[in-house]
């Protein structure tokens, strides 16, 4: 992101009323997020405990001995004492080192064999040390979740699983499984992504152009984006819409003054194409 735009956006978001901020070391803007939070605390607008910051453990840092130092690095960048949630960003590990995407001479990602359960135990230790209030996962499928849930001596269950989730990719089975296990689904790309061809499958049509979302929006004087977000929160899915535009940051927060009928929820659920925008081909 252009220098400073994240700082400004997070400050506007906090002023608007957002409290949950989804970040990651690999977004390379954690310093700006931390600065925005600290400035808003200094202004007296919020207290640290009002904010819910989620950080992420990157793929090159899965070996258990790297987990705590990696979180400490994030805290140092944020200039905060703890994160509210720390999650394993992806269930697959890359070769540890400075390269975020380590590649061999043929340009292929170099994976790294680690035991996800051992990584999880190191995450548990971070919670015990008070560096993370809660711990969770991201991009985990049911089998990977079960591996953690069935781990002998499990101390803490993942509280959440952050996955792609929106009207074109509704995740009914994973949602039901997570409900049964008290795991909150946090839906990323809730607006259907930025459609950046370098990482998005753009063969799936743009979510916000969908006629059903727009027609329902018209009825409530809301945009397709607001309907998409409302749909997710109404089915218990946490949303983390991304915007660096002040007007859209505010727009995406105006979703608590209307509700969708059961029939509308069903209509939107029926839009599911079961196709991901974010294929994570690496
Ligand atoms: P921008 O940052 O210019 O607002 P997702 O959250 O699904 O990843 O979607 C993010 C993309 O959607 C970004 O390109 C963002 O652009 C755009 N966006 C965010 N909010 C809205 C909105 N209310 N209406 C239309 N586009 C939006």
Structure in words:
The protein is α/β, with parallel strands linked by helices and 282 residues long. It has a single domain (5-270), classed as NADP-dependent oxidoreductase domain (TIM Barrel), CATH 3.20.20. It contains ten helices and seven strands. It has a seven-stranded parallel sheet with strand order 1-2-3-4-5-6-7. Helix 4 (116-128) links the parallel strand 3 (83-88) and strand 4 (132-138). Helix 1 crosses helix 2. The relative contact order is 0.11. The model has no long low-confidence stretch (mean pLDDT 97). GO terms for molecular function: Delta4-3-oxosteroid 5beta-reductase activity. Substrate binds at residue 112. This is AK1D1 dehydrogenase.
Brief summary of the model shown:
This protein has 282 residues and is an alpha/beta fold. 37% of the residues lie in helices and 12% in strands.
Tag the structure with descriptive keywords.
alpha/beta; TIM Barrel; binds adenosine-2'-5'-diphosphate; 12% strand; 282 residues
The number of helical elements comes to 10
Total domains, how many?
A: 1
Tell me the strand order in the biggest sheet.
1-2-3-4-5-6-7
The helical percent reads 25-40%
Quote the CATH topology: TIM Barrel
Task: Write out the distinct hetero groups bound to the structure.
Answer: adenosine-2'-5'-diphosphate
Q: Are there runs of 5+ residues with pLDDT below 50, and where?
A: none
State the shape: globular
The first-level CATH class name = Alpha Beta
Q: How much beta, percentage-wise?
A: 5-15%
Major sheet size, sense and barrel closure:
7 strands, parallel
**pLDDT averaged over residues:** 97
- The CATH superfamily bears the name NADP-dependent oxidoreductase domain
Could you give the distance between the termini? 22 Å
Number of extended strands = 7
H/E series, N to C?
HEHEHEHEHEHEHHEHH
**Structural class assignment:** alpha/beta
Shape-level CATH architecture? Alpha-Beta Barrel
What would you report as the Rg, rounded to the nearest angstrom? Answer: 19 Å
